[in-house]
Amino acid sequence: MKLMGDDQLERSAVVANCRMNRERGLLGSNGYSKELGFDPLCFLVARLSAGKPLTWLDLCCGSGKALVEAAEVVNTEGFDLHIVGVDLAGMFRCPRPSRPCLRLVEASLTTWRPDAPADLITCVHGLHYMGDKLGLIGRAASWLTEDGLLVANLDLANLKLADGRGAGRRVTSDFRRAGLEYDPRKRLVVCRGRRVVILPYRYLGADDQAGPNYTGQPAVNSYYQPNHAGGRSL
Ligand SMILES: C[S@@+](CC[C@H](N)C(=O)[O-])C[C@H]1O[C@@H](n2cnc3c(N)ncnc32)[C@H](O)[C@@H]1O
Q1: CB of 207 closer than 6 A to ligand 1?
Q2: Are 144 and 191 in contact (CB under 8 A)?
Q3: 8 CB under 6 A from ligand 1?
Q4: Is 0.90 surpassed by the pTM of this model?
Q5: Strand 159-161's sheet: what is its strand order?
Q6: Where are the alpha helices (DSSP H) in the chain?
Q7: 48 C-alpha vs ligand 1 centroid, how far in Å?
Q8: 92 Cβ partners below 8 Å, 6+ apart?
């Protein structure tokens, strides 16, 4: 199978799909709190202490609707919070008037890096469209504050070994070894506190013809070569 590189993948119809849901709000049945199992804004507000601003970084933020809604509350309540959203498509909602606590960045997460650690990092149904999903999970874990929290939707069925077999089971064990948690019921990968995550895989490329995953939307399969220097054989 011919695998795709990042440039080709980012131009593909699956990643540019205009029917994918980029419009989740903060709360409710089409909201971040339902997908993540907690309200991101409540999580941060509970951690606020005087003189210490907190940061929420949302990867693959889509239109940024949830972030705009959160920014309105932050503005009204005067919370000391910064909200940063990053998305490839740049199809952002623009709050009127603009809110200084909110920054929406059009960029690819294959190359983008934050300029400061984040107290909360979320990625709501974004990893399904990334090529190197494990690479982004590892980088995001390193972007956390010491006691920060990373939560991202991940379908293990979209992780493949070079010969086409599923990589999900062995990746879950390697997540555990690396200090990450995976909740198979909610299909969420979680990292508590900043970590250097070394997962023993080499990214080979992506297949945008994987078909729908558990979300019902066409997703991207990511192919990996286990790195035997990491210690284990198949
Ligand atoms: C299903 S949408 C989810 C959007 C938002 N999190 C929500 O739930 O409303 C997935 C998003 O991932 C973005 N995306 C895909 N590949 C990306 C990449 N390489 N870098 C940044 N964003 C990417 C897409 O543009 C899309 O907006």
Answers
A1: no
A2: yes
A3: no
A4: yes
A5: 159-161, 221-226, 201-207
A6: 6-10, 13-16, 32-36, 40-47, 65-77, 133-142, 168-177
A7: 28
A8: 63, 64, 85, 104, 106
CA dihedral 138, 140, 141, 142 (to 10 degrees): 90
Domains (ranges, CATH) in the chain?
A: 6-15+34-230 (3.40.50)
Contacts of 212 (CB under 8 A, 6+ apart): 218, 219
Tens digit of each residue's pLDDT (9 = 90 or more) over 95-123: 888 899 999 999 999 999 999 999 999 99
Mean pLDDT of the 149-173 span: 97
Q: Where would I find the beta strands (DSSP E) of the chain? A: 54-59, 81-87, 102-106, 118-123, 144-153, 159-161, 181-183, 188-192, 201-207, 221-226
* Mean pLDDT score, 187-197: 98
What whole-number percentage of the chain has pLDDT above 90? 90
Residue 68 has pLDDT above 80, yes or no: yes
pLDDT > 80? residue 37: yes
Asked if residue 91 lies in contact with residue 63, where contact means CB atoms within 8 angstroms, the answer is: yes
- pLDDT of 233 strictly over 60: no
CA-nearest residue for atom 19, ligand 1, is: 108
Question: What does the pLDDT average to over 13-31?
Answer: 92
**Which of 172, 180, 113 has its CA nearest to residue 150?**
180
